[in-house]
Specification:
alpha/beta
Length: 179
Amino acid sequence: RVMCALTEPMDALGVKVQVTGFRNGRWTYYDNYNRPNNETRTYHRYESIRHDVFKSFDERFSAVKWRFANTMAVGSTPMADGIQLGLDSLSERKEAHRVLLVITDGCPDGGHGPVINRQIRLAKESGIHVVGVGLGYGAQYVEGLFPDSVYSQSINEIPKMLVAKLNDLLDFRAAKRGR
């Protein structure tokens, strides 16, 4: 619902928007936690990642809105991988304003925090603004992880909060990319 509430009006205004989702390659949430206790991996990902593309930059929302209806919230939260896809996509764009909204209802998978901190730093250096958007109980962590964030336990408050956040961030007089 949040993705639709953001994408539809932006698309109607002619704003170039890409909407993707991320999840691990397993079908159940609990499969991610059935590893042996003595495992000592030093990397942030344990399984394959699935990226769901709901809308690409050049597609109209009206042509792809059916994809939003088929969203499944399964798997864990490989957030660093989702952020990287967004940053890779935005780095190729020439628009003056490039904003990555990371919308989540859960904490990132273990080990993703340091990776996300680095991604946020690199994004800022590239002129991409990253905003964490936490929705629901348990997602308040976005306020500590992301330097810029919006959080609410109620989905009804999120659209109004995001419009206010975007108004604060965007200077429509900007002529240079990334400013």
